[in-house]
Amino acid sequence: MEPTNHHHNSAAGYSSASSSPPPRRSICPNCTRPQLVCLCKFLPSPPIATKTQIIILQHPHEAQHKLSTTPILTKCLLNATTIVNRRLKPGLSDLLDRSPTAVYLFPPTPHSSPPINISELDLTSSSSSDSNLVLIAFDGTWKHAKEMVRSSEEFLSRFARRICLDFDESVDGGTIFDSELILRKEPHGGCVSTMEAVARCLRVMEADGAEIELRLIGVLREMVRLQAGFLKPMNPRPKLVKMKNKSEREDEIR
Ligand SMILES: [Zn+2]
């Protein structure tokens, strides 16, 4: 286990990495994936426009994660924004500071009030206002995401409702994409990558949601396919294997 950092010093620890990444290996400047698994030709161009505004709260540790799907997701969607922080609070987002009609996506936990299943979300209740719905998702390990939700709920409770994907509650069920889209599951069943979770939500929230979901899942499939091919080369060179073992074998798609 890595040590837990209780100080809120993410700016000092991480901003330099994102502004000037060390050129240890060739990284595509557009999709931020290693050149060998560059996803650019699969990304929608132009990015997909949605009525929904998507905000992803990304844990600082996740911002360092090579297989995070969040950078790809924000490339695919015109209206998706990432906030790197451990919690949501006033002052981080002009949009959230205006208390928009919002939902935040998180599975049920033992002591939480039961969330609304995404398929039961009554979108008509938000159409009374002119502003569009905001979807908030959390990107982190299960443990980090729980912490982020817990410490953000006081702020979120002013304007946002908690929702879950329908399959969150089945501990063993997982999703129909398990075999293809998740390299390794988190301790709890039903955990999906941030990108897949947002795609599932947009299916319900957008008028042409089914097509948007298909396009996002298509990009995710390519990401997993490229990564799987990269992790299991036909004739692995010793140096490459050693590097992969160190840096990415423990990774998983999130
Ligand atoms: Zn690229």
Automatic annotation (TrEMBL):
Comp. bias intervals (Low complexity): 10-19
InterPro entries named among the record's database cross-references: DTW, DTWD2/TAPT
Every DTW domain range: 24-232
Coiled-coil region: none
A molecular function (GO) term: tRNA-uridine aminocarboxypropyltransferase activity
Known EC number: 2.5.1.25
SMART domains associated with the record: DTW
Reactions catalysed: a uridine in tRNA + S-adenosyl-L-methionine = a 3-[(3S)-3-amino-3-carboxypropyl]uridine in tRNA + S-methyl-5'-thioadenosine + H(+)
Alphabetic keyword roster: S-adenosyl-L-methionine, Transferase, tRNA processing
Pfam families to which the protein is assigned, alphabetical: DTW
GO biological process, one term: tRNA processing
Region (Disordered): 1-25
Family classification: Belongs to the TDD superfamily. DTWD2 family.
Protein name listed in UniProt: tRNA-uridine aminocarboxypropyltransferase
